[in-house]
Amino acid sequence: MNSLTIKNLSKTYANGVKALQNVSLEIPKGMFGLLGPNGAGKSTLMRTIATLQDADEGSVVLDNLNVTNNKNAVRRVLGYLPQQFGVYPKVSAEALLNHLAVLKGITNKKERDELVKALLHKTNLYEAKKRNLDGYSGGMKQRFGIAQALLNSPKLLIVDEPTAGLDPAERNRFYNLLSEVGENTIVILSTHIVEDVKELCTNMAIINQGQVVLKGSPLKLIENL
Ligand code: ADP
Ligand code: ADP
């Protein structure tokens, strides 16, 4: 039983901006939508959950693990796709996944080859596995971002505005992939597109100016917006 519990999280930046104010959320397995306008505090919240920065107050707990005090343990079960996953070198998807798998400590070649092959199939990149990443389309790059995040077999996958700039077909393809992952993982999707949350997510929260203004089931909440 996986879940993420966020309690009374607050963060004020050095310039005085209150990016998070007393944010509390219970995030179960499945797809969770985090909605809010630019500047609402979504990235600050996601970076805090992803162990990339600390809040001033409050706690984030994954199952029984306090995220702030157990960063390394959390990183082993975390997948994170930042807003602009910027590294697209002149190397093929297959070669880079293989390399990342080595870095992860999968030294058995047969095991590594099978894992890489499975990830390429899952993200629909198998046919394009020999092509260099810098030549991939936006949608392919995002699907590669999911492939690299899945190398960790994450319990928790965080994706920040993943479909910005994708055409509708690629967006659908990406969301189908994400939904599949959400069947046995906690997936937190940040977006400002209400329809995406309505279609995909079983739970959601809306944040504005660092505060949770609504939380619950999208079907119930969104009709009233
Ligand atoms: P969102 O992801 O919803 O756009 P952010 O978490 O990026 O929101 O930002 C929340 C607020 O905090 C914004 O007003 C933003 O300008 C501010 N902010 C974000 N990062 C920093 C930082 N490193 N220093 C100062 N202010 C920041
Ligand atoms: P988002 O695209 O999620 O809204 P931003 O564009 O606000 O994020 O921020 C991009 C980067 O700039 C982030 O790393 C954030 O921490 C930093 N940043 C944002 N606002 C400020 C700010 N007012 N002062 C300093 N750094 C900021």
Automatic annotation (TrEMBL):
The keyword Cell membrane does not apply. Keywords: ATP-binding, Nucleotide-binding, Transport. It comes from the Bacteria. Residues 4-225 form the ABC transporter domain. The keyword Nucleotide-binding applies. One of its GO terms (molecular function) is ATP binding. Belongs to the ABC transporter superfamily. This is ABC transporter ATP-binding protein. It comes from Tenacibaculum singaporense. The chain holds residues 1 to 225 of 290 of the full protein.
